[in-house]
Design a protein that fits this description.
By secondary structure, this protein is α+β, with helices and mostly antiparallel strands. The protein has a domain of 154 residues. The protein contains 21 helices and eleven strands. Helix 1 runs antiparallel to helix 3, helix 10 crosses helix 19 and helix 14 crosses helix 18.
Length: 595
């Protein structure tokens, strides 16, 4: 099954929903305009379709290899990576001072949706590199930036994130890796890290590892973690890779999906490294990389859903079975069965909602740095921070659900590997887990983001949603009234749920924690519905004026209506789940549950 880059949908989401036009007038991006955006999207689409998608299936079947202590990328991946790097795709949003193109983060996210959709296992390599670039850009020394950033931005060198250890998953207070000063301004890092994405490979000439470790005498817990940079090969005076560092891959994992992405166990055996940022501030420094990766993983959820949707739609248009309501032929294509169309519209509505959430988050990230006034930058920062856990968790849960529906549309053929539908489902399943599980994202949303600025971040979002609901309910096109009413009801539910959680975050913390996951789903449904309803208003206006592709605009309205009845209509149920409380959870025992 081939992949078609959804350039039109991405451009619509960027311009009409994410508000990328606000960046055109910003002094922060002097080389950016809508013509540049279109050219970049089309070029990335060509790379995704022509280079990356064709090796996706073969990469899944062959996987990465670990032989004689070395890791080798799946067949064709090293050559594809060189084409990717030579095209400058790794440096779209990076600082021009170090060789980047200085374009908006939002555009980079749109580009990488296509990269991940074409080949998610491949896309993980530059995803981690970009996160490492952001961490070094913010916390590295001038010498570190001058030496490493040009190579990483060009794609000549790749980057990794080394957090997890066998005894330390999400709880980084248990990190045991150590860093001993070597007396020459560097450190010797010793320890084992696991689940290191693209931790070793043969696609680039060097790999830059960012590693969390403890200095001698450091405080216990997360307050005693520092961040270090340890390259696979120690750079020579001229910047070229030289002597091999004392670190290696101990093996690679055999996983459910993303087989072509080498997930390594990394062994640091007195590896030479350098402190990044301040001592004992490593977790805070690494959060720069983690937050960047979380938004990028949200985009992965959109990407794998888009790939699964495209394959399901193509199959529905060719598979003949039964006599359908929407056709007179017997047998008819399954696309003409109402339940198949219902599933396809739910799939597409969720994809477009999540895409808009992720790209809007990217625009707010750009505005948080580039808006002209301090007030505008702060407002953008608050909205960005609020949306990051929603973008990551809601979009990746959506990706799994859509990929599962893709298998369902294929029927029995979806359950066998030959069609490729199963690969999308397998690949999608990791996204709610890595870069902070979706349960952690829910706790972050409820525990940290809900109370930001005295609750103003959430209040502001709900207020914006209400304005759109009013616009739909008062619109001349009566087809918009229904989704407008559903959006208003969901906003009411979200407001009540937010108040309930705020009242219990202190004295009734177990109740609040129990409601965190359904609260994130409710807020994701609300925000996604808001995006689709805004698209519906735009579509209705184009229809009324007789402009553009009429079927395209009618479908935008249909997606908002289907999402309203199939998703937003459940808002009251999600509110009930938020306010369930922890009593029933507290009363169970392991024995009563069957242990």
């Amino acid at each position: 099954m081939t992949y078609t880059a959804p350039v039109r949908d991405l451009a619509f989401a960027l311009t009409e929903l994410a508000g990328v036009g606000r960046l055109v007038s910003s002094r922060a991006f002097p080389d950016f305009d809508l013509d540049v955006m279109q050219a970049v999207l089309e070029g990335a689409g060509d790379l995704a379709q022509g280079v990356l998608a064709p090796i996706n299936r073969a990469g899944d079947k062959a996987g990465a290899r670990f032989e004689n202590g070395k890791v080798y990328a799946a067949p064709g991946f090293a050559d594809a990576y060189r084409q990717f790097a030579q095209g400058g795709w790794n440096g779209l949003a990076a600082d021009p001072e170090h060789g980047g193109q200085g374009l908006p983060k939002a555009l980079e996210l749109a580009v990488f949706e296509m990269i991940h959709a074409a080949n998610m296992a491949f896309g993980l390599c530059p995803l981690l590199t970009q996160g490492a670039i952001e961490a070094l850009s913010e916390h590295g020394t001038d010498e570190q930036k001058a030496l490493y950033l040009p190579k990483m931005i060009s794609g000549e060198w790749t980057g990794t994130m080394n957090l997890t250890e066998p005894q330390s998953g999400s709880d980084l207070s248990l990190v045991r890796a150590t860093a001993e000063p070597d007396g020459e301004g560097a450190y010797r890092i010793t320890g084992q890290k696991i689940y290191i994405t693209w931790g070793d490979h043969d696609a680039a000439e060097n790999i830059v590892h960012l590693v969390l470790a403890r200095l001698p005498g450091a405080p216990e817990g997360v307050k005693g973690i520092s961040l270090f940079l340890a390259p696979k090969y120690l750079p020579q005076a001229d910047g070229r890779p030289g002597e091999a560092n004392s670190l290696r891959a101990g093996g690679i994992e055999h996983k459910l999906g993303i087989h072509a992405s080498p997930t390594c166990t990394m062994l640091f055996e007195g590896a030479k490294g350098w402190l990044v940022g301040q001592e004992n501030q490593g977790l805070a420094h690494m959060f720069v990389m983690m937050n960047a990766a979380r938004l990028s993983v949200g985009v992965q959820g959109v990407a794998i859903a888009e790939r699964a949707y495209q394959q399901a739609l193509a199959y529905a248009l060719e598979r003949r079975q039964g006599r359908a309501v929407f056709a007179t032929d017997a047998p008819s294509i399954i696309f003409d069965h109402p339940d198949i169309r219902r599933m396809l519209m739910i799939m597409k509505s969720r994809i477009e909602a999540a895409r808009a959430i992720c790209l809007a988050t990217g625009v707010y990230a750009d505005l948080a740095h580039g808006a002209e006034s301090a007030q505008a930058r702060e407002a953008a920062r608050l909205r960005q921070e609020l949306l990051v856990p929603i973008a990551k968790a809601w979009s990746t849960d959506m990706g799994v659900e859509v990929a599962s529906m893709g298998v369902q549309i294929h029927g029995g053929m979806g359950f066998v590997e030959e069609t490729g539908a199963a690969q999308h489902y397998r690949d999608a399943r990791i996204t709610p887990i890595y870069e902070g599980t979706n349960g952690i994202q829910a706790i972050d949303l409820m525990g940290r983001k809900l109370g930001m600025a005295g609750g103003e971040a959430v209040r502001s979002l709900i207020a914006d949603v209400r304005l759109t609901a009013i616009a739909l309910q008062s619109h001349a096109d009566e087809w918009l009234h229904g989704p407008g009413a559903r959006l208003a009801q969901a906003a009411d539910a979200a407001e009540r749920a937010s108040s309930w959680l705020i009242a219990r975050k202190g004295h009734a913390q177990p109740d609040a924690l129990t409601g965190a996951a359904p609260y994130l789903k409710l807020m994701g449904d609300l925000t996604g519905g808001w995006m689709l309803c805004r698209a519906a208003v735009i579509a209705a206006d184009h229809l009324a004026a007789g402009e553009g592709d009429q079927d395209y605009w009618r479908t935008k309205i249909g997606l908002a209506r289907v999402f309203g009845e199939q998703v937003l209509a459940t808002a009251s149920a999600q509110e009930a789940a938020v306010s369930m409380g922890a009593l029933d959870l507290a009363n169970i025992t392991a024995a009563s549950m069957g242990a």
